[in-house]
Amino acid sequence: MTSSSAPRLSMLELAPIVAGGSAAQALQNSVQLAQYVEQLGYTRFWVAEHHNMAGVASSATAVLLGQIAAHTRSIRVGSGGIMLPNHAPLVVAEQFGTLATMFPGRIDLGLGRAPGTDPLTARALRRDRLGGGDDFPQQVAELRGYLGPEHAGQQVRAIPGGGTNVPVWILGSSLFGAQLAAQQGLPFAFAAHFAPAQLHEALAMYRRLFQPSACLSEPYAMACIPVLAADSDEKALRLATTLYQKFLNLIRGDRQPLPPPVDSMDGLWNPREEFSVRHDWLGAAVFGGAETVKAGLQKLLDETGVNEIMLSTDCHDFTERMRSCEIVAGLLPELRTTRMEAATG
Which family, according to UniProt (predicted)? Predict the structure, then answer.
């Protein structure tokens, strides 16, 4: 049996530093964007942890979240995500326990196991934790223990943090995160904004293996995808050349601030690079005017049945970014998501 309902709409933020701009301006824009999408009715505003990237200012994720929460009123604020192998679970529990104590009922803790950076920077971050995140499930369990109620004989506590029960999400771009989220009965967010290949397989696995928990009685899934909406298809496709250049630079190992759009990508990439950017990185992207974006988002909902869509919207021009968020918010009442039942053997 299936049922349909309106999906939730949320925002992923990397505090993009644009070419010709500054980190200070990027951080100010993050706060302003959070305030704006709150007014538009978005459910969540999440910030992603990245390091040593010239175009990203969200490295001190918990600090930025505190600023955003302080300048908004009702929107849920969280991490999309905290790269847990970079941190001691106790430190994360203290940081998010502090946020939850200051802003009760508004904080989410999305967790990922990738470093969010290059190997050399990961080494600088982790020091004596140089593994590949193989103990991620144990780290998640330890962190959740600090955020839960204190138990008899507990000698190490997160203060504040204990008893806050900050909602924990598992983030993933592969099947690993889907399986862990299902086993733990936690909500799952798939990172299709840069790794769309296993989106459908991961969601199917999550639903199939899901075990009800004190957190969730049934699966709850979110897909993060790149979206650029503009007043015409032509304008949106031109704005999208900023994203094409961004991922082209990543492929080439050339970390730069977010570039301005160009009239054409011809001559900027070779056929192999173009295929990689369009399909391997941005295969789930939806770019266009309102009707094109509406059709693209509805197609995603029809194919995945996700409860929530999170937008990753990179524009060189901040006003165009805000306009994109506005257009998508206007489409929300017309979108429907169909609840998908897990397949059983």
Answer: To bacterial alkanal monooxygenase alpha and beta chains.
